[in-house]
Write a structure and sequence with these properties.
TIM Barrel, 11 strands, 2 domains, 14 helices, two-stranded antiparallel sheet, alpha/beta, Non-ribosomal Peptide Synthetase Peptidyl Carrier Protein, Chain A
């Protein structure tokens, strides 16, 4: 196995050594444990849960694992390293929520400081924390304390944006506050909250942060191909990259990126492989949700898995009406023929 430029490499997040630097980002509505297991099978070295509300965790009576929020945080049987991502704006609530993560056994606890969704921002969490680095530092310190008390000291990490808007690019200050409070790794998505997911991410900010922060920096933003991952690692010097939208319906991107970084050849997935991966995903989801709910949830996933294939528009028009596993098999068997 070769690694010509040394771009595929282990990442140290505090005491945790991850075997590689290709991560699956947290994406609401997509990165359930079924999908994280699929991505791990194709080479993702770390997967993040969908963001989980610290308030919901703290307020939940009884068995947290059986709640809607608890189901978001469960580890998949075959997913390897995984991180639970929390969001919240109160250090005490975040502390108490992190204490309740022990039964889930995460390898990392991540704090969301980048979600631009109005519902999250209005609560003072997500990207709203970019406006108050001191509060962000207090939250990190609280979660680090909880990790030491209840989670065996697993690393605490943060995912940030470049700032609130173009007039307040404070990613340096925010990242420094997080690391000063004990964060072991910072992921930077170099868009502002005001940009949302529009425009183009500014990778030069990742390079700037990676060159000055005394902790590993992961980069995210506009990673839709293996070639983009290679370019970000090479151009920015970041320790790891985090695929988000580029991995949806495309877990093969981890295999392709790893192969490219190692100087190996990797054929693109054939339509049959895409379909088989989608059915493995569905098969993992059904025990968690039941067939009816899983099949409705998988409509968007099957559409993502078949994006760009011949006859895709007509195929997706049929897939969004599927209600059972047999419906999917009938639709896709006809298409594959």
């Amino acid at each position: 196995m070769t690694n010509p430029a040394g771009l595929y490499r282990p990442v140290a997040a505090g005491p945790l050594i991850l075997p590689g630097n290709l991560f699956l980002a947290p994406v609401a509505g997509y990165t359930d444990r079924a999908f994280r297991q699929i991505c791990a099978g194709y080479g993702a070295n770390l997967g993040y849960t969908e963001l989980a509300s610290a308030e919901a965790i703290v307020r939940r009576p009884g068995d947290l694992a059986e709640s809607k929020t608890g189901r978001l945080m469960r580890r998949g049987a075959g997913e390897g390293f995984y991180a639970v991502q929390l969001f919240g704006a109160d250090p005490d609530v975040m502390y108490r929520a992190a204490l309740k993560l022990a039964p889930f056994g995460p390898d990392l606890v991540d704090i969301n400081c980048g979600c631009p969704v109005p519902k999250v921002v209005k609560s003072g969490a997500g990207a709203a924390l970019m406006r108050d680095p001191a509060l962000l530092g207090d939250i990190v310190a609280a979660v680090v304390r909880a990790s030491g008390e209840a989670l065996g000291g697993v690393p605490v990490t943060v995912k940030i944006r470049s700032g609130w808007d173009a007039a307040s690019l404070n990613y340096r200050e925010t990242a420094a506050a997080a690391v000063g409070a004990g964060a072991a790794l910072v992921c930077l998505h170099p868009r502002t909250r005001a940009q949302g997911y529009g425009g183009q991410s500014d990778w030069s900010l990742i390079a700037d942060l990676a060159g000055r922060l005394p902790a590993p920096v992961a980069g995210s933003g506009d990673l839709f191909s293996a070639e983009a991952a290679e370019r970000m690692l090479r151009e920015t010097g970041c320790a790891a990259i985090m695929f988000a939208r580029g991995a949806l319906g495309n877990p093969f991107i981890f295999r392709e990126a790893r192969s490219l970084l190692l100087g190996e050849s990797c054929p693109a997935p054939a339509p049959a492989e895409r379909v088989n991966a989608a059915f493995r995903h569905l098969g993992l989801l059904i025990p968690d949700m039941g067939e009816y709910a899983a099949c409705r949830e998988m409509r968007k996933q099957f559409c993502a898995y078949t994006k760009g294939v011949p006859g895709g528009a007509r195929l997706r028009n049929a897939l969004v009406r599927a209600e059972t596993e047999e419906d999917y098999r009938r639709i896709l068997a006809g298409w594959l023929e």
